[in-house]
Design goal:
Layout (H helix, E strand, L loop, with lengths): L2 H22 L3 E7 L7 E5 L13 H10 L6 E7 L5 E10 L5 E10 L11 H4 L15 H16 L8 H13 L8 H9 L3 H12 L8
Antiparallel strand pairs: 1-2, 1-5, 3-4, 4-5
Length: 219
């Protein structure tokens, strides 16, 4: 894909984003992401539901999908998410592909339904979703916030602080974060190294081992 072709795609998406946001008003936000740089993928946002600006990173939910399914990741439609200030959203993420099917971006619509929860019948179609459609998603304003959220989730799942981790647990911790797509973000290796009290070279070594499907107990 040429630079001109890529620019044309994203210019069209930006125009569509502005149109959708204008149509649905203050309760709607539409974000356009260029996934060449996940750590600063947000290139345009119409609306202000999540209080993000251009240059913000991709969400952890999208990172996880890309890590798990790569270019086979499917669009996520109508899932429920909650902002840091407690607002309830219905969100949809559509992946943008080039002619070869490679994912190059994401087009995300967030609709704030907080005010409408008391008028269930009016928005019945929007709100009647099974619990299977509810997903956790972090709308980070900067790179550090995304990495911090992912590492805190990992620490909670381990049930103790990294300072108490054994060598095997540190490897499993790195494996957990890798599965969540944390290391797709620039600077994450250094951040995790500081959390675990290791060098970035040790983290790279752990990543090589877990990605080679080596049992941590054999390390």
């Amino acid at each position: 894909m040429t630079a001109e072709e890529r620019k044309a795609i994203f210019d069209n998406l930006i125009s569509i984003a502005d149109t959708i946001s204008e149509m649905f008003g203050r309760n709607c936000e539409v974000a356009v992401h260029d996934l060449r740089t996940p750590e600063k993928s947000l290139i345009h946002i119409a609306g202000d539901i999540t209080h993000r600006k251009s240059g913000a990173p991709i969400t952890d939910l999208v990172l996880n999908a890309l890590k798990k399914y790569k270019d086979n990741a499917k669009n996520m439609v109508g899932y429920r998410s909650i902002t840091k200030d407690g607002r309830v959203l219905r969100s949809t993420t559509s992946f943008v592909r080039d002619k070869k099917g490679k994912i190059i971006g994401a087009f995300c619509v967030n609709f704030d339904i907080t005010e409408f929860l008391g008028t269930y019948n009016v928005f019945k179609d929007l709100l009647e979703k099974s619990s299977e459609d509810e997903r956790n998603e972090t709308f980070a304003k900067n790179l550090n916030e995304t990495i911090e959220t992912l590492t805190q989730e990992a620490i909670i799942s381990f049930g103790k602080q990294p300072s108490s981790f054994t060598s095997d647990e540190k490897i499993k911790f790195v494996s957990y974060l890798d599965e969540k797509g944390a290391f797709l973000i620039k600077g994450s290796v250094e951040y995790v190294a500081s959390i675990l009290g290791l060098s970035k070279f040790t983290i790279y070594s752990y990543l090589q081992k877990v990605r080679s499907n080596i049992n941590p107990n054999d390390v």
